[in-house]
Structures
1.
Amino acid sequence: MKKNKKTDQYFESYELTKDPFPVNAYDNILFLTPELTNRIQQIKKLIVETDKLIVVSSASGAGKSSLADYLDSIKEKNWKACLVQADTDMDRETLAYEIIQQASPDKADEKGMSIPQLHKLLELSSKTEQVPVFIIDDAHKLPIETLEFILELSALKYQETCFHFVLFANEAITDKLNSETLIELTSQLVTTIYLPSLSLAQLKEYIDNRLGSSGEINEYPFSDDDIKEIYTISAGLPKGVNILAREKMLAKLAPESKPKTLLTISIASIIVIVLAAGFYLTSSQDPVTEPSQVIAVAPPQPASPPVATT
């Protein structure tokens, strides 16, 4: 991370070895709560017991990318998992190529042959008794045509083997999956899991864990009121927590520039409120259990005919 005078003071004053609350860089530390652990178990069970495509939906800032990384790192027996980062320009062939590059790198030489190679991969997975698990992060960015391709692939079978797709996305994917083009497929093939936010107690432990892994903090920077304010504004979304916690730590370093700092916090609060609003729209569909102990874990077109069921 490029430092300036302000961030130098931030690191030195708090005796930090790394930024506990990064806001401009991807953060792959997953903070496991009982609710999140439950979601992971749900996903694993669905992969083992069903043929359905799984959509893991969340508000922006809820930590879906960290969970996607974590799922990719799980070494389940017979799983052959790969993680693909989606974008708005990813068409059918590009997606197929990204999957083949990871699942069968020796077969990924010719990009134009990736879709036929996927069909062969399904057959090979059946013969070797492997479970192909394809994790797509930021799946809401995919064009509808590419989502349609994923649904078509999910419907394919070779004997008893099928492709298992897990799509991590923000709530924008719902409109795409409910579009006239896809609704007939999604009603039969898709199951959705919603990610929870942090409770007040979990948020406090989240903050403590991040501070504890970032150096020997000489003075705890947050009061109880600070924690409650961060929780209220962020709605327990990790990205919002990071933004607000970092701004509060910076504000405490420069009391003489309090008006400017408060303005900065106000702007940050507006950003976080937008994130939180998205969470409330999503979480209303998914009641969660009472929180308990938490731990932190760092994660170690159809261009060719469909494969016929045999």
2.
Amino acid sequence: MAGGRSDGSQDALECAAALLDEVQPRLIALEALAALIADAGNAEEVRSPPLTLLYVSRGLAEKADAARALIGTRAASQE
């Protein structure tokens, strides 16, 4: 491996990538559920928590995408 990296760092990258792959579909489902709940509610007190959930799930999904890109970049640089 380039730069004398150990197999442990490659294993950590692969583990992180696998975790992100597992979490991403759940975040998408969470976002869809929050949108459905928000659409179904008419009162502000009904819609606020799901909308907050929607924004949080979007933020997590964006962070997961960024982490996946970083892992891909690091893995490519180790080859």
3.
Amino acid sequence: MEMIASKNPTKTHLLLLLLLVFFLSLACSQPLHSEPMSTTTTTATQPTPPPPPPQSKIPHAEAGGAARLRRIVLGVLFGSLTGFLLSLAFLYAIRVAILHAKYAPAIVRGPVSFTPQISPKNLHSALPSAQPLAHGPNGKYYKLVLDNDVTVAVKRLEASRPEASPSSMPNVSKSDMRRVQRQLELLARVRHQNVMGLKAYVREADRLSLAYDFVPGGSLEDVMKRVRSLQVNLNWDARNRIAIGVAKGLRYLHFECTPRILHCSLKPSNVMLDEGFEPILADCGVSRLIASGSADPELASSLYSAPECYQSSRPEKIFSKIWLYFFKMIVMALEFLWSLGGSHKPILP
């Protein structure tokens, strides 16, 4: 060694310097006050971390409970809202019933007049002195002269009709009585030169009397009888005037009235004629006073009545066929001057 150092002292010094640097680098790589670098020692001295806790099922349970609670709350709210709405509907129905009972038109039982020319009391007192004129399937016709020299035609609906005499029929409901009263008020509002409007009525214990303007010329049926007996000459101009007047009256009743009035009993005996052979339709809407939505056997026996009037409970739906049928029957009677069911032969002018 001494020989190596003596032969090359520079290399010796360089080797010693490298060794010194190596040991210094090892010393610097270790932290101060640290244990020796050993994996086994480090693992033994550090505390073992606790194992991870097992996954709990509590979040799933909480989610199911929240959904169940939500359903319960929604059910309670929906039930409360439904009950509240039903309560409102029930209270509204009660209020409507009370208002209907309070403001429903009173049932008028005494004589009623729709014109100042007829006094209800005078009409009622003069009824026993009425002169009979004719008898129809649904009532009798009378001529009545009042105290003020006003002449009226009175039609009496007999007591066999419950609606015509509700005071003697305790089983008739008030709704039927009000229905008859509304129909009478509707007939009183009729204003047309070819339609006979209701002027007054008297509701008695056994009958209902309807007062109209008296037409001295009689009915088309009466005129046809006089023509057949050669007492009257009914030329084509007069027949044309009668047909046009009947068409105007039907148009007014079926298309211009609100609500429309169906004349389900139009025939020559219900077509009144004045001195100039101007027709006036009588018995308008009387069938509604007699039958309520059902066929009347006596009315159905009329050969002039449209079959639809008695085959359908709602003839309003087929009124276009009804009024055409009636008009054709009147035109046929005017053309041949004969009545259906009669034994006489047609007469041509």
4.
Amino acid sequence: MDKTEGRKVYESNGSLVHHFENLDREKFNALEHVEELDSRNLKYSLANLVYLYNPIFIIDEAHNARTELTFEVLKRLNHPVS
């Protein structure tokens, strides 16, 4: 899944800010950012939260979730930050 525009999981969400406080530079740099004119602001997105904490996903009805898109999304979300 290359196109993340318009997908809520990749949009910045102000209610997630507290999860990203006091990050060290390595973790900060490994996450997705919003590129604006002269600044590089961290995206407070659910995707970045997943990258940061690397949770285990349990997929109900996984036998029905065998599409190429499903595997692409799971692969993209499996981007742990050390």
